[in-house]
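User: Let's play a game. I give you a shape written as tokens, and you guess the letters that built it. Ready? Here's round one.
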């Protein structure tokens, strides 16, 4: 990177990770010129705006991993940011519930991970204690995580964007990047909103991060496979069944947490999501098919190796996607009194999950650094919670180069 007095940094992607990176850069390097390019007309339209809005404290993640470290740092930063900016949020706590004996060892593993990751105030609960917190839950044991909470990440994006612009940064919406060409030690960037020059590029393109890295000349070391997560809403007259956040014990082989109950900060209770292959990277409906995106999946050996190892899980998720009855049955393992008639269709999100050519999921955050570019190539949950910490880490890395 050309070490000019006022370096130009372009961030591709106006989700919460891209915006948080711009925000943190302008905090530590107020003299630099930062531009965020977002292909949509509004910010946070995709993964940021279609997740469950949970503040994750770091219970699930491998001790020593980037996810563990940045979730623990990130939830503190995010709660503080919300407090300072009058963003509606609530630290309401979460229950992770074991529903049978076979899950107890995995629940104990989660407890140990939480302790190693520095979570404070964890409580191991027996059956009666679970129902003191969530009266309608059914389980034999559980963990109460008091630090976890809820927020609307679209509102977080709006406030971060305000600070970026107030500090002299530029946010260009409607700017889909179509070309990246080396120019000297930096980049020439062509977008649908015109061309831009940059000394350093930061790729936070989410569902399209692997394609943006390819535009920059990187070999595709991983590929994004889109998984749609579908939600139901609990009808208002039955929302008393859930007070806050109720999660199952997850399968450690997958980064998906299983269908769960989430109270939303804007009101209402969501149930979900499942995790099914989406036939488009922005495939929020079952009927949405993008031929190019689907071709990208079916021609990737890593996808077929993943499928060969996990076909049963994929089949179960597909069935649950097609059957409200099966979806409800999964929810009933946590709250037996929930009925199919209590559920009405909700929204959906698409998760950008990177997969290696050998079929293994990329389990941790994956950030690739080059002399004049940084590519965020895997940032699923808990990236929204951790976004300010991720942004601070990228900003620190760039600061060391200047």
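Assistant: Ready! My guess for every position:
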């Amino acid at each position: 990177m050309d070490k000019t007095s006022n370096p130009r940094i372009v961030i591709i992607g106006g989700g919460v990770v891209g915006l948080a990176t711009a925000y943190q850069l302008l905090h530590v390097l107020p003299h630099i010129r930062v531009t965020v390019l977002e292909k949509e007309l509004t910010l946070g339209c995709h993964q940021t705006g279609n997740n469950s809005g949970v503040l994750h404290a770091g219970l699930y993640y491998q001790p020593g991993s980037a996810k563990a470290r940045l979730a623990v740092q990130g939830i503190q930063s995010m709660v503080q940011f919300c407090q300072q900016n009058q963003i509606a949020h609530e630290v309401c706590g979460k229950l992770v519930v074991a529903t049978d004996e076979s899950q107890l060892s995995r629940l104990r593993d989660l407890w140990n991970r939480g302790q190693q990751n520095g979570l404070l105030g964890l409580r191991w609960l027996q059956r009666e204690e679970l129902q003191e917190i969530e009266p309608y839950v059914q389980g034999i044991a559980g963990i109460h995580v008091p630090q976890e909470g809820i927020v609307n990440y679209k509102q977080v994006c709006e406030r971060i964007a305000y600070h970026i612009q107030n500090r002299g940064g530029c946010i260009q919406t409607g700017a889909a990047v179509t070309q990246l060409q080396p120019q000297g030690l930096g980049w020439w960037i062509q977008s649908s909103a015109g061309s831009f020059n940059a000394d350093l590029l930061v790729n936070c393109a989410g569902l399209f991060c692997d394609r943006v890295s390819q535009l920059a000349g990187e070999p595709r070391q991983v590929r994004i496979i889109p998984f749609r997560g579908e939600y139901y809403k609990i009808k208002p007259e039955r929302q008393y069944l859930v007070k806050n956040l109720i999660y199952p014990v997850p399968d450690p082989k997958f980064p998906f947490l299983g269908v769960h109950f989430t109270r939303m900060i804007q009101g209402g209770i969501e149930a979900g999501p499942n995790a099914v292959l989406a036939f488009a990277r922005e495939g929020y409906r079952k009927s949405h098919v993008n031929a190019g995106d689907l071709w990208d999946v079916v021609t990737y050996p890593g996808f077929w190796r993943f499928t060969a190892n996990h076909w049963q899980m994929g089949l179960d998720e597909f069935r649950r996607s097609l059957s409200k009855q099966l979806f409800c049955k999964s929810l009933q393992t946590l709250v037996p009194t929930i009925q199919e008639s209590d559920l009405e269709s909700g929204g959906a999100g698409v998760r950008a999950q990177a997969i290696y050519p050998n079929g293994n999921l990329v389990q941790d955050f994956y950030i690739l650094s080059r002399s004049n570019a940084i590519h965020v190539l895997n940032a699923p949950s808990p990236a929204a919670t951790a976004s300010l910490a991720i942004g601070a880490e990228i900003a620190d890395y760039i600061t060391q180069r200047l």
